[in-house]
Design a protein that fits this description.
23% strand; single chain; flat
Length: 991
């Protein structure tokens, strides 16, 4: 306590302000002498913590606040820097509190935590920026209260976030207190009042109430339990919930139950969706591969206890993937759903229908159904039949069509994966067999393994140097000369040995390796052609086959052009062959690509023609130069009549489209003869040369390999073919017809007669009717189809009226003669037949000449139209130039006059007309009449110029003096002259 003697004077009040103004500047605290007295009497004795702060810094604190902060009485006299250092985390919390209450936290001097409430009162009017802070210790009261509030809030938030609720049940009275979360879950208003626990069961569906009650009744004390059931909220919403509970006893031995209910509806739906996606195809709703394998595996396990057999079918529907590529995923999915519906309709109880991927489906046939179909053909044929009917996709009707492979348990495999693979292997073999159903055999697995080995080897064949090229010659059937060759790819694998082209190419097409193989082939061929060209070896046009997949690449044209440029090859040295199937599968980019290649100079050949199906409308619009007839359409003399007619129709169609026709795979002279007779243009096949390596190919070219002349043309003689199985009759007929000078060829039967017709150009055929193996009418029908220009007669003692009449009506027989014959009458009939043949040949020759002349005339007309068109364009250009020149001359400010060698004015301009006072141009008038005697002077001056710079002449026109610059055309005045008139200003001035 400070003594009164030393006590400072009392603090001044507002009334002591000498100015009487409340706004006077506040005095500094250091100037007040009563500070220590007031602090001791008032500040330190206050029973709560006080602190005076100025501008956010503590000036001093009282004893109660020092003790509250864990300090001692000495701290109340500490300086401001010491206070800031002692409790640094407190003072920032006491700033800018304003009129509110703030909860502050501070670490005491002993390290414990202080929780307090702070209030402030401003002393700004008394001392600028000063305030008194009151701090109340709430540590004991705030700790438990804060903890309980926080826990309640956290529980409420946790229940809301987790869509859960909780409750406590008094097991003795059955009363239950539910949390807000449980009320919110059930959609009922919250009430803290206890309720009967049985009331909770009314939210449980009636069928599950007993289940829920039984679990609680059987609960063991202090043992947690959980189970799932359903709840129905107040608004009727059904929920799947997970309930966890436990029963415990309190200190008095009373039992209490605690439960937590969590809504797991979304979780269960997600699990079901995951389960559905894991076992079902999303597009069709069928089972997927995983579920199918599980079912097959279950059937295999059942078969171990109950021996039996069942089937697995692998179904491939290519139209699904084709529609995706052609019309988009929607069309492909629509077809997949249609296939799924048909397969599901076929399935019997116990069968499993699944979609593996894309257009691949599978069916597991139950053991009960499989007992009636040991091989699987019945079920497979049923699938093929079900998918043979058209399905409407958009505006089109498309037949799905399917290939089915069958595997049997346990004969073919004993595990689920192996069974499905066996069915797939069987199906993959169908392409080679041309069937729609195939059953797995041990050879199928070997073929599948070899197919995999081929694909693996092809991937590295180029880098290992296993690929080579072979070459097969192509000849012209008119001259027999070699006009081209085809480059073919060959593969000799280090592991597999020589692999035939027909075996590895389908694998390359299916795996996509054909693109890289095509790149290698193109580069190797161009490099070889460049090498031959550098060694001065002349090689005909070389064609190379391009697959449909290569044609679908956007850069196929650029690759071809770049490769030819890289090796310095002319486009006329190369040809491109595409397959007939490319017309359908090539897409919209086929026509532009072929057009670009054609414009470059590459010959386009359409191969495999007649083997599959052809879009004739598209063929007509494509720039195809050559049609290559497939070897299946190249007939022999023993071929059916329809086959020969088909080949002839293809050749005629190609010619009508202005295309060359080439036959592929010609193996016999009989085939060659028929092709020549049908008007085929080119051929390729073993009858000329088989595929050979590059060295042998060059040797063939150096030896001028060609078709023998005997195959191409035979010496033209009047040839009579006698066909009879009796040698005596043949001898008699030979003696009879020898006198007329015919070349006589004989045969003892129809087949031999057809063979003779391939060797000789026969004019007239005289055949017996009754012969072994083939009757005369049958033989002559065949001869008519193969060689329609021949004249055919029957000489027979047997009159089968109906067959003879039909043959005559069909035109197969020209005349029917009977045995025995009269020599003179028979000679006369044969002479008439030859005359008829010669007349027909002459008519044919004339018709050919007319067609040739017409074609030549058409080409000449086209060239003439082109020349006339060019001339007209040139005339139009010259007229435009003349008009432009005329406009320029008229625009000149000088008078111009042109005179030709005959003295006729051929050039004037508007300025000349103005000078001469002419109303109209003087073109065509005589220069002598227009210029008078001055024309002679001008002509003389032009003659004197002699091609030198123009000479100036002074002359008078229309009473005025002019300077005329005169120059001869083409160095001679006799060719004409050009006159430029300029008004003589100086002469006029002197006058």
């Amino acid at each position: 306590m400070i003594s009164t003697e030393t006590a400072p004077s009392p603090l001044p009040s507002a009334d002591d302000d000498p100015t009487g103004s409340q706004a006077a500047a506040p005095r500094q605290l250091a100037d007040w002498t009563a500070e220590e007295w007031l602090k001791a009497q008032l500040f330190d004795s206050t029973p709560m913590g006080l602190c005076v702060m100025q501008h956010g810094r503590p000036l001093f604190i009282n004893r109660h606040m020092a003790r509250t902060l864990g300090g001692d009485d000495s701290d109340c006299n500490a300086a401001a820097p010491d206070l800031e250092q002692r409790w640094p985390d407190l003072w920032p919390q006491l700033q800018h509190i304003g009129g509110e209450t703030r909860v502050v936290h501070c670490k005491r001097a002993d390290g414990s935590l202080l929780v307090g409430r702070a209030y402030t009162r401003s002393l700004d009017k008394l001392m600028g920026g000063t305030e008194v802070v009151t701090l109340v210790d709430d540590t004991r009261r705030e700790g438990p209260g804060f903890s309980a509030t926080w826990r309640a809030r956290m529980l409420e938030q946790a229940e809301t976030i987790g869509r859960s609720g909780s409750a406590e049940i008094d097991m003795a009275t059955g009363k239950m207190v539910a949390s807000k979360g449980l009320h919110q879950l059930l959609g009922t208003p919250f009430s803290p009042q206890p309720r009967r626990g049985a009331s909770f069961l009314r939210w449980v569906p009636a069928g599950e109430r007993g289940y829920v009650a039984a679990i609680w009744q059987g609960a063991i004390t202090d043992e947690p339990f959980e189970f799932q059931h359903r709840l129905v909220a107040q608004d009727g919403t059904r929920m799947e919930v997970l309930q966890r509970g436990m029963v415990e006893a309190d200190a008095a031995g009373r039992l209490h139950g605690y439960l937590i209910v969590q809504d797991i509806t979304a979780q269960r739906q997600a699990e079901q969706r995951i389960q559905q996606l894991a076992h079902q195809d999303e597009v069709t709703g069928l089972s997927n591969r995983t579920f199918l394998l599980d079912q097959i595996d279950a059937a295999v396990n059942n078969a171990r206890w109950d021996p039996g057999t069942f089937l697995v079918l692998s179904v491939q529907v290519d139209k699904v993937d084709q529609l995706k590529q052609a019309m988009g995923y929607g069309a492909g999915d629509s077809m997949a759903r249609a296939v799924a519906e048909r397969l599901t309709a076929l399935a019997e109880p116990g069968d499993v229908v699944a979609r593996i991927d894309g257009g691949e489906f599978a069916i597991m046939v139950s053991p009960q159904s499989s007992r009636l179909d040991a091989t699987g053909h019945i079920h497979a044929r049923a699938v093929v039949q079900a998918l043979s009917h058209a399905e409407r996709v958009g505006a089109s009707e498309i037949v799905p069509s399917a290939c089915v492979g069958v595997a049997r348990f346990p004969q073919d495999a004993e595990t689920a994966g192996d069974l499905l693979e066996a069915a797939q292997m069987a199906r993959m073999r169908i392409d080679a067999q041309g069937e729609q159903v195939a059953v797995f055999t041990p050879e199928t697995r070997a073929m599948a393994l070899r197919r995999l080995a081929i694909e693996s080897g092809l991937r590295h064949a180029a880098e290992r140097g296993e690929l080579t090229l072979s070459y097969q010659l192509q000849a012209d059937l008119g001259s027999g000369e070699v006009i081209g060759a085809q480059a073919m790819l060959e593969w000799t694998s280090a592991e597999l040995g020589p692999v035939p082209f027909k075996e590895f190419m389908p694998v390359a097409l299916q795996s996509g390796l054909v693109v890289s193989l095509g790149d290698w082939k193109r580069n190797a061929l161009c490099a070889q052609l460049q090498s031959w060209e550098q060694t001065k070896v002349r090689v005909p046009r070389m064609s190379t086959r391009i697959s449909t997949l290569e044609l679908q690449q956007h850069d196929v044209f650029e690759k071809m052009r770049h490769t030819m440029k890289q090796y310095g090859l002319s486009p006329q040295r190369l040809g491109v062959e595409i397959s007939e199937r490319a017309l359908v599968d090539g897409g919209d980019g086929l026509a532009p690509t072929l057009t670009q290649l054609k414009a470059l100079g590459v010959e386009i050949t359409l191969g495999d023609f007649g083997a599959n199906f052809t879009n004739l409308a598209l063929l007509r619009s494509l720039p195809v130069d050559v049609i290559k007839v497939d070897r299946s359409c190249v007939p022999d003399v023993t071929a059916a009549v329809g086959a020969v007619s088909l080949t002839r129709a293809i050749i005629n169609m190609g010619h009508s489209l202005q295309m060359q026709v080439m036959a592929e795979g010609v193996e016999t002279t009989g085939q060659l003869t028929l092709l020549i007779a049908s008007g085929c243009d080119r051929m390729q096949g073993p009858v000329l040369a088989s595929p050979v390596d590059g060295e042998t190919f060059i040797q063939m070219l150096s030896q001028r390999k060609r078709l023998p002349d005997s195959m191409l043309s035979r010496r033209r003689e009047r040839t009579l073919l006698l066909v009879d199985d009796e040698p005596s009759i043949v001898s008699s007929l030979k003696r009879l017809f020898r006198r007329d000078g015919y070349r006589i060829v004989t045969a003892s039967g129809g087949a031999e007669g057809l063979q003779r017709m391939t060797e000789y150009e026969v004019d007239v055929v005289l055949s017996d009717q009754r012969m072994p193996g083939m009757t005369g009418v049958e033989f002559l029908r065949r001869a008519k189809d193969l060689y329609p220009d021949t004249v055919r007669l029957v000489l027979s003692g047997y009159t089968e009226l109906q067959s003879i009449t039909d043959a005559v009506n069909e035109g197969a027989i020209y005349r029917f003669l009977t045995k025995p014959w009269d020599d003179e009458r028979l000679l006369e009939h044969v002479r008439e037949a030859f005359a008829h043949k010669e007349m027909a040949d002459e008519n044919k020759r004339l018709a050919t000449e007319v067609v040739t002349a017409s074609e030549a005339l058409t080409r000449a007309n086209e060239r003439l139209e082109q020349v006339l068109g060019n001339q007209q364009r040139q005339i139009d250009l010259e007229a435009a130039r003349a008009n432009t020149a005329r406009d320029l001359l008229d625009a000149l400010p000088v008078a111009l006059l042109g005179v030709d060698s005959h003295g006729t004015i051929v050039l004037t301009n508007l300025e000349l007309q103005r000078v001469l006072g002419a109303d109209t141009p003087m073109l065509g008038e005589s220069a002598a009449q227009a210029l008078g005697r001055d024309y002679e002077t001008l002509s003389a001056a032009a003659g004197m110029s002699g091609g030198q710079p123009a000479r100036m002449v002074t002359l008078s026109l229309r009473g005025r003096s002019w300077q005329a610059w005169v120059r001869a055309l083409d160095h001679a005045a006799s060719r004409g002259l050009v006159l430029t008139l300029i008004h003589n200003v100086s002469q006029q001035a002197q006058s």
